[in-house]
Each structure stands twice: as structure tokens, then as C-alpha cells.
User: Which sequence fits this backbone?
């Protein structure tokens, strides 16, 4: 009986598979039979079994994202000879420190690595394999180089901190080889450099059939459930919670974005309290729709975003209703000719009983071009905002008061306004960065144009509860007619109103 021989090619693939999937390090300690732990296998399953092109993997600390990224790169490089594989970090120095200087990527295959490597270029952080594949590390700050690359696969590490221009330059090149893109790292927080692009891509991946978003926590790594490791992690969590950083714990360990936190500008915003379905909100307005004052407020951006809010105030109760928004980031759709008919349509839909001219129409004074074009082409007048020093701080303070006292109701149509407010945060210096606040600006312009003041908040509270009257009286207030004379015998006439005598005998 003849013995079947294994070809050199088959032998090579057998060795590659064994080396690539063999457990190492802590994985051996917990009895893993695979290089990847169960959480990583489940996270990468859509990439290898469903053959998707785009995978976003938000994960908790110590999940094993770096090993997952290394596996994706080495798997492509070994299984598809001639592949060009890129690992992109926020900065080149970050990539060098994270996985290059410690030889983490060069020796990813352990003692078997050297038999696959042809050469290593330290300066370029590039590994060339004997099968013609290349693994290279880069930083997003070198975004101009991104448009000249032709990848077979790419991994973004901590995309939240990328230079936004990198993805704009690099992403079109993915199509040439139908290259998968894997984005891996912790979720963004307010103030992160690339938070806006991160959110946009996440939403696209959730809806696209060839993409997936798989969320993993710290505890999805079985190694973190070992007694000693779990004790260390729980210690870190308790320290954060003792400082009130509950939002950090939820984001960094449980991969959840929680509104609020120590840097939040509007921590009092609560969707359960302040947001209503559009139907429910409009039904409240419709009861007295002809009594309301109506506002259309525009922030006409030319390079980033064209934002519009549609609001109403009940002048009797001082209640505020934010009913709809426009948030157009496609610059091809922000011309007056395209956007104003949409604004006009929404005004008619929200209040069909009044003419367009009966709306108070306001615009950011920096967008004079828009007001001029609307006047010329649609014979409609918009009035500019009157900005003064300190207006922003006063406006934000008033919005806080409105939220705290539940005076404002926001339609669930206003998703971008709610997201802006939830993610609006101070930087490390305690200042509010001027970004991602287009609809918040509209909100401020609206209450300013409506002459809405803190007195309106007080009036609303009094109407809700008469016992609250006088609650906000100034501490410096003095009523001379009611000042007490400490020398007066204020008990002298006590009992005069009774028409009977009280005799006490002891």
C-alpha cells in the first residue's frame, strides 16, 4: 500500500496554519487552544467567515486589541503572498512605541517568526516576508502619503485620535484591491480629535451590508477573568469611580458611551426627560398652535455644516419646543437654491396656519451671503444675530437652566442637536472648543432672538408650583416695611384677638 506524500506547498500551508494559530503567552496559561481567545474569535468572525470588507471593533481596555490587530496583519501577509498590509496609528511615534520597539509585531509568530521574514527596515518600520508580503507601520499625521498607497488590508489603531485628513486621502485606495479595513480601539470621548469622523464611519458601517460593528468589553477576554488579573482591573475601576469618573469606566471598560462626565457642559440633559417622539411633542404644540411664536434659526456653514433649528415658544407658559432640524454636511447640498426650499417645506409642515413671513427667521451674522441670496431669490428676510462679548457663556448658562427646570422639550427628529449637546465638553484647560456646536449655536441664537431670559425660567417655575414664588429672590433684597425692630416687644399684643380671659392658677 503506497504512502501518500505531502507536497512542499501543502507542507508550507500546514506549517503556516499551525504557527499562526498556536496559543502563546497568557493564552497557554488559561488553556487556550488557539492564538486568539474566544472574544477575539467572535469579533473577527465577520471578517473571515462572512467576508465583509469593513469591521469596526470598539473594545475595552486589555481586551487584546493589539494582538487582534497583529493577527489580522500576519494572517493576510502569510495566507495571501504578495500582500501589502498597513498598521496605522494616530502618530508614527505611537506605532513605534506600541508594537515596534518592543518587537511585538516583528516576533508575532514567536520562535517561528524568523523563518518567514526576509528583511526588516527599522527606519521605515517595515517587515518584508519571503513570500513577497509586506507589513508596514505608519502614523496618520503623515496623511499626505496616504493617497499613494495600495493596500491589501489595513488596520486603524485608536482611530478616534487620527488626523481627520488621513482617512480622506487613504480610503479611496482600499477599492483597488477590495482591501478590508479593520478599525480597532476604545470608543471616543468628547474632545477627541477625530470624534466626528469616527461617529460618521460607525453609522455607515452599521447600515452597510459589507460592514459590521462588533463591540467587546474588557471582560470578553477570558484572561481578564483570572483572579489576579481581575483583581487588578477592579482596583483600577474602583479608583476611577472614587473620583467620579463613571463615564470613563463605562467607556474604557464596557465600551459604552455615557453622556455626562466631569468635562460635560450639559450633564443635566436626559433623553428620557427632555426628548419626546415627534408625534407626542407635536400633539402638545397643536393644542395651542396659533398662540405660539415660531422661529427658524440658521447657521449657514460653507466649509463644514449648514445647520438649522425650528423652534416654538408658548408666550404664556414660557415653554420651549424644539421641533426639527437640518444638519447638512454635504457641501454640494448647502447652496441656498437647494437648502432654502427644504427649510420652507419644514416651516409649512410644522405650522400650516401661518405664512412664511410670520416666522421669526434668524441667521448667524457670519452668513450674510445666505440672507442676501434668500432675499433676492425668495423675497424673504432673515435677521442677523447681534453678538456681544459674553453672549456664548450667557446662552449656555440659560440653556442649562432650561434643562434643569424641564422647560424645553426636544423632538426625536433632532438627533444631531442631542448628540452635540451630549458630547459638548470642556478641554483639559477648562475651555469649550469651538467645534461640533452648529446646532447648539442655533439654540443660543434662538433664545437670544426671542429675548428669553432667566426671568422667563422663574415665571415658568411659579406657574408650575405657586409655593416656589420668591425662590429666586436676591440675597441682597431688603423690604424696609418688613424689617424687624429687635427692641420692639413683639409679644405685647399677643392674645388681644381673643374675647375671653385666660386665668392660670398654680
Assistant:
Amino acid at each position: 500500500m503506497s504512502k501518500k506524500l505531502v507536497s512542499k506547498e501543502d507542507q508550507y500551508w500546514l506549517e503556516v496554519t499551525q504557527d499562526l494559530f498556536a496559543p502563546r503567552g497568557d493564552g497557554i496559561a488559561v488553556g487556550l487552544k488557539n492564538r486568539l481567545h474566544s472574544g477575539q474569535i467572535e469579533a473577527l468572525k465577520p471578517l473571515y467567515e462572512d467576508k465583509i470588507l469593513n469591521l469596526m471593533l470598539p473594545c475595552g481596555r486589555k481586551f487584546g486589541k493589539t494582538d487582534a490587530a497583529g493577527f489580522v496583519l500576519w494572517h493576510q501577509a502569510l495566507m495571501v503572498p504578495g500582500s501589502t498590509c498597513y498598521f496605522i496609528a494616530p502618530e508614527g511615534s505611537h506605532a513605534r512605541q506600541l508594537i515596534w520597539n518592543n518587537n511585538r509585531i516583528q516576533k508575532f509568530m514567536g520562535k517561528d517568526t524568523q523563518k518567514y521574514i526576509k528583511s526588516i527596515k527599522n527606519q521605515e518600520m517595515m517587515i518584508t516576508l519571503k513570500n513577497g508580503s509586506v507589513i508596514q507601520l505608519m502614523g496618520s499625521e503623515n496623511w499626505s502619503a496616504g493617497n499613494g498607497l495600495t493596500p491589501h488590508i489595513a488596520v486603524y489603531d485608536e482611530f478616534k485620535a487620527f488626523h481627520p485628513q488621513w482617512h480622506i486621502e487613504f480610503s479611496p485606495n482600499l477599492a483597488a484591491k477590495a482591501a478590508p479595513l479593520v478599525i480597532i480601539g476604545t470608543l471616543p470621548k468628547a474632545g477627541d480629535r477625530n470624534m466626528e469622523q469616527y461617529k460618521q464611519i460607525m453609522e455607515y458601517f452599521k447600515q452597510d451590508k459589507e460592514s459590521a460593528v462588533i463591540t467587546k468589553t474588557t471582560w470578553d477576554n477570558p484572561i481578564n477573568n483570572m483572579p489576579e488579573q481581575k483583581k487588578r482591573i477592579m482596583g483600577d475601576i474602583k479608583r476611577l469611580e472614587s473620583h467620579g469618573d463613571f463615564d470613563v469606566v463605562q467607556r474604557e471598560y464596557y465600551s459604552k458611551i455615557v453622556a455626562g462626565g466631569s468635562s460635560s457642559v450639559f450633564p443635566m440633559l436626559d433623553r428620557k426627560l427632555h426628548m419626546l417622539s415627534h408625534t407626542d411633542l407635536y400633539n402638545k404644540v397643536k393644542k395651542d398652535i396659533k398662540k405660539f411664536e415660531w422661529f427658524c434659526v440658521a447657521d449657514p456653514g460653507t466649509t463644514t455644516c449648514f445647520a438649522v433649528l425650528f423652534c416654538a415658544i408658548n408666550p404664556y407658559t414660557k415653554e420651549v419646543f424644539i421641533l426639527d432640524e437640518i444638519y447638512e454636511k454635504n457641501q454640494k447640498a448647502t447652496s441656498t437654491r437647494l437648502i432654502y426650499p427644504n427649510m420652507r417645506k419644514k416651516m409649512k409642515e410644522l405650522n400650516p396656519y401661518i405664512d412664511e413671513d410670520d416666522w421669526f427667521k434668524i441667521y448667524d451674522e457670519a452668513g450674510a451671503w445666505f440672507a442676501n441670496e434668500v432675499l433676492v431669490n425668495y423675497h424673504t428676510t432673515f435677521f442677523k444675530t447681534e453678538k456681544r462679548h459674553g453672549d456664548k457663556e450667557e446662552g449656555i448658562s440659560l440653556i442649562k437652566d432650561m434643562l434643569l427646570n424641564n422647560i424645553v422639550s426636544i423632538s426625536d427628529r433632532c438627533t444631531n442637536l442631542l448628540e452635540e449637546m451630549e458630547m459638548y465638553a470642556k478641554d483639559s484647560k477648562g475651555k469649550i472648543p469651538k467645534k461640533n456646536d452648529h446646532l447648539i449655536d442655533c439654540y443660543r441664537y434662538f433664545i437670544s432672538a426671542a429675548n428669553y431670559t432667566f426671568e422667563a425660567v422663574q415665571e415658568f417655575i411659579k406657574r408650575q408650583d405657586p409655593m416656589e414664588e420668591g425662590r429666586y429672590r436676591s440675597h441682597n433684597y431688603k423690604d424696609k416695611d418688613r424689617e424687624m425692630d429687635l427692641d420692639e416687644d413683639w409679644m405685647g399684643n399677643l392674645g388681644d384677638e381673643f374675647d375671653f380671659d385666660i386665668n392660670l392658677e398654680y
User: Anything to note?
Assistant: The two ends are 129 Å apart (CA to CA). Residues 467-506 have pLDDT under 50 and may be disordered.
